[in-house]
Amino acid sequence: MSDNELGTFLRTCREAVTPAEVGLPTGPRRRTPGLRRSEVATLAGVSVEYLARLEQGRDRHPSPQVMGALADALRLSVEERFHLRRLEKETSGDPCCPTASVPSHSVRPTVRALIDRMEPTPAVLFNRLSDVLAYTAGYERIMGPIGLLDDERPNLIRFLFTDERARAAYPEWDGFADEQVASFRAESMLTDPHAEGFADELTVIAGAPFADRMAAVPRLPRRSGVERMAHPEVGAVRLSYETLTLPDADGQRLVVHLPADDASSAALDRLNGRQPGGLRAVTG
């Protein structure tokens, strides 16, 4: 993991905001569509030199006031502000930040009962390394035939990058792989030896497709959207998904899928042996 995630995140956000979004003229001779350091510094009320030190990782102790001013200047969302604050605390070595624990493989009884009650909806519980911890039978009927659940301890990221069946199952493999690596990076602490070990393992086993994504500019993953799959039994399927983070320190997240159109709804009904209309399509 990079030791300058905070600076990289600030620079990425700066380059993603256009002058028009903050009421500034575009002007000539812009090498990138984003804001210049001088413009962000002016909007946030800090010096250009100080902003450069933050982005380059030469200053790791910005005050909350500075972080708030930069977040306002960069028009960050609430989720992005939480992420910025977490990066700042970890980068500065804040003693209130918890140390990285061993990724949990246990599931609370209430969480397991919740998952059981979701049948036949495809739902799966991951830890922060994307190990599969629990899932519904509806999820098994979708993911079992493509091979994800073959291993004794399945892992979605390892499957994506090391099993050739994954590319056949996900027609938009590149985008899906981008999202999974972004989620892994966002869920892992900067000094997480377990995440570092997992990343080192996949860098060796999977090579450039994984390593290049880890070396790319970090971004926050989407928490909802639509995934396309080519299922070996029922053909093309489009699944809407929502990601729900559990309120504990283990970094577990529950991903729930629903058919994104009527054809996908019928396909899931066939997999589940139900009459048409068992799982209604969710659009919009």
Topology diagram in text:
Layout lengths: L4 H12 L20 H8 L3 H9 L7 H10 L4 H14 L17 H8 L6 E4 L5 E4 L1 H7 L12 H7 L1 H6 L3 H15 L5 H14 L1 H8 L8 E8 L3 E11 L7 E7 L2 H11 L12
Antiparallel strand pairs: 1-2, 1-5, 3-4, 4-5
Short structural summary:
This protein is of the alpha+beta class and 284 residues long. 45% of the residues lie in helices and 12% in strands. The protein is built from 13 helices and five strands.
Structure description:
This protein has 284 residues and is of the alpha+beta class. 45% of the residues lie in helices and 12% in strands. It contains 13 helices and five strands. It has helices spanning 5-16, 37-44, 48-56, 64-73, 78-91, 109-116, 137-143, 156-162, 164-169, 173-187, 193-206, 208-215, 262-272, and strands at 123-126, 132-135, 224-231, 235-245, 253-259. A five-stranded antiparallel β-sheet has the order 2-1-5-4-3, with helices on both faces. A hairpin with a 7-residue loop joins strand 4 (235-245) and strand 5 (253-259).
List the main descriptive attributes of the protein structure presented here:
13 helices; 5-stranded antiparallel beta sheet
